[in-house]
């Protein structure tokens, strides 16, 4: 049973979960500080260990959130990868919407005005 | 018999935990949010719950996609927090109530909720942040806890109707618990927000206000929504509304709103707080006679 698409909104369904398993599993490992350090020490080796697909490898190398989601990444797990680089969900939001972080924050403030 | 004294709904954004750790409660960005809690603190000081049943969602601390339960009930003597990967300070563990957990589990399965039962269960910010908001101060936790995790990560998610029925079954089970415990029910997360995709930053004030209104006196009105309809109206992560709907389902008596707050934004989220008092219908009848 397939759902109707919601514009601009990834739905993490069975297809995405299957496609994204390796990437999400790698990101899940970043709950552990030692694994975060291992990733920073040798990113390529760490990604190989988790068997990322070529598309996932490219998305991680490009630090591109929309590409990671397109390769099956789930934002809750991806946020742990982003955390390694000191980025939070507002940084992720800005990148995905093509805005500066300040403009993205301003947009949220305006939503409450 | 145990008494369900009320329910609280609150946002659980991780950044709130960061703000607490840095002592930013009076910072202009945070003050409108933190200022909504003193009325709840006063009510808790008067009402003195013994146990809190927490409907929340795990964000990849305890559960991974290898095994993803739709509903999971904690049955541990204590619940540990742990490193979530993005710098939140790890909280000290929370006392459980294994007897009450098993009572809930027995009742839920008897009532055809085929839940997953967990004697070990890490709790993430969706559990720790609301408890820190309700009882500020790391050592000020005068309650035992029972966590109930609802899957809001891996679609298909349970419907609003199913989550409401889960809440109702929890409420009936709590009321049949042979003890004098005073029980608070908590639903965490939301309201509207979206972290992922080109629609990141989406907020829907009108939908949120409608939900907060309906949660008080007409929660059944929210049960018509599928999880995907909530995603569409409240954003991908706004679907955490399911936790609030389950909380409301557990309030089986006569419900009145004591306090609420709605503030945009906290991080990417429309933040909300709702305090509902629950008066058992039986006790009202006893009062009247």
What is the name of the CATH class of chain A? Mainly Alpha
Strand content of chain B: 15-25%
Structural class of chain A: mainly alpha
- Would you identify the CATH H-level superfamily of chain B? LigB-like
What multimeric state do the chains show? heterodimer
What percent of residues of chain A are in strands? under 5%
Outline the biggest β-sheet of chain B.
8 strands, mixed
The CATH homologous superfamily of chain A is named Dioxygenase LigAB, LigA subunit
| Radius of gyration of chain A, taken over Cα atoms and rounded to an integer in Å | 15 Å
Element-level helix/strand string of chain B: EHHHEEEEHEHEHEHHHEEH
Q: Helix segment count of chain B?
A: 10
Q: Which outline of chain A best applies?
A: globular
Count of discrete domains of chain B: 1
Distance between the termini of chain B: 20 Å
Low-confidence parts of chain A lasting 5 or more residues at pLDDT below 50?
none
Total domain count of chain A: 1
Mean pLDDT of chain B: 95
Distance between the termini of chain A: 40 Å
Description:
The complex is a heterodimer of chains A (113) and B (289). With 113 residues, chain A is mainly α. Chain A has a single domain (14-112), classed as Protocatechuate 4,5-dioxygenase, Chain A. Chain A has 9 helices and no strands. Chain A has helices at 14-19, 21-29, 33-41, 43-49, 54-61, 65-70, 75-84, 89-97, 101-112. In chain A, α2 packs across α7 (75-84). The radius of gyration of chain A is 15 Å and the shape is globular. The termini of chain A are far apart. The model of chain A has no long low-confidence stretch (mean pLDDT 95). With 289 residues, chain B is an alpha/beta fold. Chain B has a single domain (3-288), classed as LigB-like (Protocatechuate 4,5-dioxygenase, Chain B). Helix content of chain B is 35%, strand content 22%. Chain B has 10 helices and 10 strands. Chain B has helices spanning 14-22, 31-34, 38-47, 98-110, 125-134, 160-175, 205-217, 227-234, 241-249, 281-288, and strands at residues 3-10, 51-56, 71-74, 78-79, 94-95, 116-118, 144-150, 182-188, 254-266, 269-279. An 8-stranded mixed β-sheet of chain B has the order 6-3-7-2-8-1-10-9, sandwiched between helices. In chain B, strands 4-5 form a two-stranded antiparallel ribbon. In chain B, a hairpin with a 2-residue loop joins β9 (254-266) and β10. In chain B, α1 crosses α5, α4 (98-110) crosses α6 and α6 (160-175) packs parallel to α9 (241-249). The model of chain B has no long low-confidence stretch (mean pLDDT 95).
